[in-house]
What we know:
Elements: E1 2-4, E2 12-15, H1 26-31, E3 34-37, H2 47-56, E4 62-67, H3 71-78, E5 86-90, H4 100-114, E6 118-122, H5 125-138, E7 142-146, E8 148-149, E9 154-159, E10 164-170, E11 175-179
Amino acid sequence: HIIISRSPMLLARTRSSLLAQRPLSATAMRSLSTLLVGEHDGEKLTEGTLSAITAAKAFGPIEVLIGGPGSKAAADSACAVDGVGSVSYVDSDTLAHGVAEEWTPVILAAQKAGGHSHIVAASSAFSKSTLPRVAALLDVAQLSDVTEVKDASTFVRPMYAGNAMATVESTDAVKVITMRPTSFEKAATSGGGGAAPPPAG
């Protein structure tokens, strides 16, 4: 294994059902949770985000965080996605264009509020610009373009310009990960429940 080890708003929430990808002990479920930074088209989550949700089911309860114009409608839709435990959204024009400097404090605030062990997003231009900043401010390593989840700390990802696949173990307290969408099935868009409330603030 390659061991990676480094030293250590406006949010509205709603509840829906939770379905874990694999069995976890009660202790593990209490200590693991995911902040899933989602992307949407103003009405629903993108296909890449649905794939990232499937990958994140191994990490306990999933809170989906979305932002920008249309996020209220997308939040309503996200509540129904299988595996989603809660949805937070920030309906603000400042988040419309996926600017890393605008998104980073929102993500950090949500992670702190939820005490999440994992921050996950689909691999995209947005996540590639934003999550490295999040990881740097948390003083942890980022794992990019993960293609397989072995367990909550062990992942498979490409290395050497994609010429090799490596199994990587992270010992960071908070794991910041982008998932390759084509490596995971898209989460079903039904199976959850609940409606998103108006944004706080």
